[in-house]
Specification:
The chain is mainly alpha-helical. The chain has ten helices and two strands; from the N terminus they run βααβαααααααα. It has a two-stranded antiparallel sheet. This is BTB domain-containing protein.
Length: about 230
């Protein structure tokens, strides 16, 4: 549990959360140098909270110009909760530009942390790039890691994954149907060998007898594309 004595003026100018809180009143302590309000917080990272409050109170000399991705995600949790994105915007740009590791290119814990940071601080380009990776590589609903990632976003990402997989299966079924019919461009033997290879490949991908249905848990677009590339059709 963290207790901090803070300035009502600075808080209400910077945070929608504190604007609403001030409207209904909150615990007031003995006035001392303008810092007359007490904020009690549970479950927050203490260092992240101190960094945020130093920014809000103009104590810029105490604000680090470089933080780790883990710490940045913890700061983003607070910024999202207190509704003070504008107050932190400058430092957010500095911090994200100085992250030592490049953008994660595979679905991982680091990618989810970076996704949350990009969502809180409205990094549109980064957000789009990371969501494409998630849609391509995830095998179901993403793990939120306890971060306040909106359920609507989680569901939207998985819906896109499901739609791609559904289209993928539909295309394979259409190809299977075409190969089942005799065509002038290919002999019966050729068609039979191609159809057999396709059926074998679909079984290897667990796409045949029975075919999977939504929400396609355990299936990723990336794995299916890789498996399709391994099918040897004469």
């Amino acid at each position: 549990e963290i207790h901090m004595r803070l300035s009502r003026k600075h808080l209400t100018l910077s945070s929608t959360y504190f604007q609403e809180l001030a409207a209904i009143g909150w615990e007031e302590t003995k006035v001392e140098g303008g810092y007359s309000y007490t904020v009690t917080a549970k479950g927050w990272d203490e260092e992240a909270l101190i960094i945020l409050m130093n920014i809000i109170h103009g104590q810029t000399q105490k604000v680090p110009l470089e933080v780790s991705l883990e710490k940045l995600a913890k700061i983003a949790v607070l910024v999202n909760h207190y509704g003070c994105q504008k107050a932190v915007d400058f430092y957010a740009k500095v911090w994200t530009s100085r992250l030592q590791a490049p953008l994660p290119e595979t679905y991982s814990r680091e990618l989810l942390l970076r996704l949350f940071v990009s969502w809180v601080f409205s990094e549109e380009h980064v957000f789009k790039k990371l969501t494409r990776t998630i849609i391509y590589e995830s095998r179901g609903l993403i793990h939120t890691l306890g971060l306040p990632i909106p359920r609507k976003l989680v569901d939207a990402l998985d819906k896109d994954r499901q739609q791609l997989i559904s289209g993928f299966i539909s295309d394979l079924n259409s190809l299977k149907t075409r190969l089942s019919k005799e065509e002038k461009e290919c002999s019966f033997e050729c068609l039979s060998m191609s159809l057999g290879a396709l059926i074998k490949g679909m079984r290897a991908m667990r796409l045949d007898d029975p075919q999977p249905t939504e929400p396609f848990n355990g299936y990723s677009v990336m794995a299916m594309e890789k498996a399709l590339g391994n099918i040897k059709i004469p």
